[in-house]
Amino acid sequence: MQYNDDIIEEVLRRTDIVELIGQDVKLKRSGANYQGLCPFHSEKTPSFNVSPSKQLYYCFGCHAGGNAFTYLMEYHNYTFQEALQILAEKAGVTLPEIRQSEEAKRASERKARLLEAMKEAAVFYYRRLREPGGAAGYRYLRTRGLTDETIRRFGLGYADAYGDSLYRKLKDSGYGDELLKETGLFHFDEKKGVSDRFWNRVMFPIMDLRGRVIGFGGRVMGDGKPKYLNSPEGTLFNKRKNLFALHYARSSRRGNLILCEGYMDVISMHQAGFDNACASLGTALTEEQCMLLKRFTGEVLLMYDSDDAGVGAALRAIPMLKDAGLTPRVVDLRPYKDPDELLQSEGAAVLEERLQNAENAFLFEIGCMEKNYRKSDPGEWTSFQHEIAGKLLTFPEEMERNNYLEALCARYGFRKEALSRLVAQTAAEGTPAARYKAPRSGREKAVREDGLVTTQKLMLTYLASYPEAYEQTKALIGPEDFSDELCGQIAGILYRQLEAGKPSEAEIIAAFPDSSDQMKAAGIFHTEIPVKSQAELDRAFTDTVTRMLRNANDRRLREADLSDMNVFAGYIENKKKLEQLEGGKLLHLGWNSGSED
Predict the structure, then answer these.
(1) Which pLDDT band holds residue 445 (cuts at 50, 70, 90)?
(2) What pLDDT is stored for residue 431 in this prediction?
């Protein structure tokens, strides 16, 4: 799917990236740029920079970076087409009819057809629930306290006991076997034929953020196994990247999100007025789901089952939510097992009170730790205090650490002075909790790159930041001299821009359809030039050009036909220039022209 480059450039020129990102991130001016806490990883000190002049963002902590398109694709999970449409609408740019390659057109049409099949399956299940064959499913839902309106709102249905009824229905609607295999709704067996994946189950449609059916969960009626069955992962459905009912919960005005374990918990919560509830999809909470939650809230209330399994799940979820920059709190459901049971027994007012009194996640963790030690045993109680000291060291900010220390002293009767000394002693010993932990953002830190690639990145930074850098080197160095694949691609675009007199890093990044390539390109344009004076800048630039030219000459010597007098003359001219630079001659850049301070 392709759009005219001029249209993409026009949308970028009319987009204020500071305003766009400022809707999600609190930004403060810092020189010519803006700074804030990175939305892609958890941090205490701002390392996230937004450049209005370059229309780029970059985080020096986790190395996330790009332009306005990249931001919408990475933070809001939009496709490039969706991001372009959103920005074009805001900028008042009318998009022409898109040009699609045949391959892209087929892929787009196939996805649309898959979504149609999933929607038709959801309608089939919904209607089956009200038919005589669905009586068991309807009776189960009503017994669980769900109203007809709630059943309708969530599109709940029933997969009956007939082994291929959905398959026959979709075949009659014109869907071929190849596409039906891709839905994940059927089992294809050479000997036994085709059968429905779901049967004798209450069906829960799983929807994406746009309310489109992408999969199903099914709860068996009776004692069959497994009790809950989900769609397999495929083209539409990825359980790691979706949350049940988030398309509803994201619009809640309650100010936070509630994370439950199961479908029925969420649906009961919504029916009771708690429309900010959602759930993971039959799996442990994932990093992708945490980042998805971060898009819509800053606080998550964990409402997992009160049994040992639920407590364990909460303990695993807490650090993941914190790493995503969220504030988790834990809701106490005891003596009830789950939210649905509490609602059935006590009602919405009691649940509201439990939500308001949700426990601080750190104190919840300490409370769970306490169960492993006996206060009556001095040795065990001392070990408990040592473990607390290690946990307190996970707070890098002294004031926050002291606040928690005082809270724990008040709860357990510790002497503040003694616990403070133990924390200091533990820090000096270098406990695992006190050691530095790199930001967890889902992006691996780059391996150490060789000097040539670093040189090429620096050269691109100079060319993009200083107009005179191109004028002084265009006769010596060209795009073909950038041997690194990504640097070479960027150089090809940048040199064409420089020749036309309008370099734009944001437009270069937009030339890469893949968001991971966009982030890599943004990182190249944020390669640091550690200079503090005009003399240091000139020396650093000259050294970079020298290294580029030396490598280029070596390559030309290996590849060129020096029997050609024109080629030979060019080689000799470059060799003389290289000797001048190596002999101490400095190239000069304007100190202020490339500075953003």
Answers:
(1) very low
(2) 44
Rounded CA separation 293/277 (Å): 11
Structure tokens at 111: 């996805």
Contact 269, 343 (CB under 8 A): yes
Domain ranges within the chain, ordered by starting residue: 5-91, 101-237, 372-434, 451-582
With 0-12 / 13-18 / 19 or more C-beta atoms within 10 angstroms meaning exposed / middle / buried, residue 539 is middle
Q: How confident is the model at residue 407 (pLDDT cuts 50, 70, 90)?
A: very high
pLDDT tens figures, 187-235: 998 888 899 999 999 999 999 988 899 999 999 998 888 899 999 998 8
Name the superfamily (CATH) of residues 5-91: Zinc finger, CHC2-typedomain (3.90.580.10)
Work out the average pLDDT over 407-435: 79
What is residue 336's predicted lDDT score, i.e. its pLDDT?
Answer: 94
CA dist., res. 239 & res. 210, Å (int)? 16
Q: Which two tokens stand for residue 446?
A: 């780059």
DSSP state of 359: E
Can you tell me the distance from the alpha carbon of 361 to that of 227, in angstroms, rounded to the nearest whole number?
31
Q: Which fold has domain 451-582?
A: DNAb Helicase; Chain A (1.10.860)
**Domain 101-237 belongs to what architecture?**
Alpha-Beta Complex (3.90)
Choose among 72, 97, 79: nearest CA to 17: 72
